[in-house]
What we know:
Blueprint: H1 3-26, H2 31-37, H3 42-56, H4 63-78, H5 84-153, H6 158-168, H7 171-185, H8 190-200, H9 204-219, H10 223-247, H11 249-272, H12 278-282, H13 284-308
Helix pairs in contact: 1-5, 2-3, 3-7, 4-5, 5-6, 5-7, 5-10, 6-7, 7-8, 8-9, 9-10, 11-13
Amino acid sequence: MDARAFFALMVLFGLGVxxxxxxxxxxxxxxxxxxxIFSEKKGAEKEAAGQxxxxxxxxxxxxxxxxxxxxxxxxxxxxxxxxxxxxxTRVGIFAGFGAVIGGPVQGVIGLFLGLLVGxxxxxxxxxxxxxxxxxxxxxxxxxxxxxxxxxxxxxHALNSALAIVGTEGPVGCRExxxxxxxxxxxxxxxxxxxxxxxxxxxxxxxxxxxxAMLIQRETGGNLTEILDRLNSVVLERKRMRGQVKALTGQAxxxxxxxxxxxxxxxxxxxxxxPKYLYPMFQYKLGHYLLGGAFLxxxxxxxxxxxxVNIKM
Length: 312
């Protein structure tokens, strides 16, 4: 690829990133400063302010607004600060490295593939953080429910019980319940506070808990008994998830072995006889074969992962 064409493409990419940053800098809602005045805990208040700002701007149409909202949700659910400028800076850096690596290898096609793969890496890292956070929450949620049940039996109100979990509960649930309690202290109705919590943490077990509490507030009943039974259901679901994970462990490990074996075999062959694999790197046909093999490996790994990933 010509060096001038590569430089021109990099300049255009930099201009695009600069335009996006300029748009993000100007998108500051006038309610944000007013909401921060009443903050007793800045982190929780900024989160509530972000929820209100997203609710106020949800009617805006357009591809850019939808993409920005998608990125905000990813950041929110990963448990990291919802700041778009640093995140898009990382995306630009990864995309630039991908373009620098892919451009000289395969020309324009490699340049754009490098841009796409590099830009997708930060989103993949966010998804991994979200999955790790969800696994911690689902592991600690039965303990948090037992905290609430014990607090209610000791005579505490529901808000006080939620505050106890937010300050002294298990680590996996502490942040979510703390933000839930802060939203209710700011005057947000409990139904809307639970909706914000489920939007931030889309867990089925949390949805069960929110539904049980809201139905109890509408119809009445013994909330302690309801949450105690719900805790038994959540514990049973946790036990079944562990059993399913144990039963599918062999298939998951087989997928990892089958997915990684060609790469280790290729590195071993290259170490023993480097000239044997030179045609795969010297000719375009070899490049296409390597790309097709890599794509089929990724698709096969995703199919096997989908088969053993049983949703509960």
